[in-house]
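Hello Y.,

Per our agreement to keep a running log of every chain we model this quarter, I'm adding this entry. I've kept the format consistent with earlier entries: sequence first, then predicted structure.
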Amino acid sequence: METLQQLTRKMAGAKDIKSVVRAMKAMAAANISQYELAVSSLGEYYQTVALGLVAYFASEPREPEAPKPAPPKAPPPRICALVFGSDQGLVGSFNSALANFVGQALRALPGPQEVWGVGERVQLLLADKGLVITFKFAVPGSIKTITPLVGKLLLQAQQNLAKGELTEFYVFHNQPTGAAGYQPVQQRLLPLDATWRADIAQLTWPTKLVPQVAGGRPPTLAALLHELLFVSLFKACAESLASENASRLQAMQRAEKNINSLLDDMSHQYYRQRQSAIDEELFDVVSGFEALKKDKGREG
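Predicted structure for the entry above:
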C-alpha cells in the first residue's frame, strides 16, 4: 500500500498534468475558432469566383456544334491524391481514419497513382498501405502559412500537368462536423472537364442583368480558374486544421476527465489512510492512558 507521502507526490503530479491539459484544450478551442472563421470567409469567396465562371460561360458566343468524330481510346488517367494530415500527436484517430478512407477511395480508381502527403504522420500510414508518396509537405502552423503551402502545391501540379505526369487530381482531408467532430472527405479538383463545367452550370446568376466579361477573355478565364483552385486548396487545408484541433480538443477533454477520476480515487485513498493513521494514534494514546491508570491503581 502506498504511503501518504507517495500519494501526495502523485496527486501533485496529476494536478500539474491537468493544468497542461487545460492549457492545451484552451489553445485547441482558440485555434478552431480562427480556422472556422477562415473557412466561412472562403466559402463566400468561392461562391464569388464560381459566379464569375458562370458569367464567363454565359457570355460565350453561341456557335452551331459540328459533328465530332469519335475520340480515340484514352489511356488510363494518371492520378495524384493530395492528403492533408497532421504532424502532431494527441489527435486520436485523425490520421488513421483518413488513411483508411484514402486507401479505399484510391482502390476504386483505375490507372497509375501517386500521393502527395501534408503531414508526417499520415504519410507513414499511407506508406504502410502500399501507396507511393512522391512529395512531402509540412503542415502549416497558422492561417498565414497556408498561402505559401498552397502556392507550392499549385506550382507542382502545374509542372506535372505540363509534363503529362498528372491527369486527375484529388484532394483528401478531414472536414469539421457538428459537436466538435470531423469526417474524411474527398474532392476531384482536376481536370476541369465537361463534368466540372456541368457542376458550375448548376449555379445561377443572382440578378436578371446579363453579365459581361470586361477585358480579354483568355486572361479572365485563367485568373478565375487560378483563384478557384487556390481557394479550393486553401479551404481544404483550413478545414483539415480545424478538424485536427477539434480532434485534439476531444482528446484533451477525455484526458481531463480521466485525470479528474484519478484525482478523486487518490483523494479518497489519501483521506482513508490519513483517517486510519489518526485512528491508530488515538488508539495508542487511549491504550497508553489506560495502562497508566492501571499502574497508578496498583501503586495506590
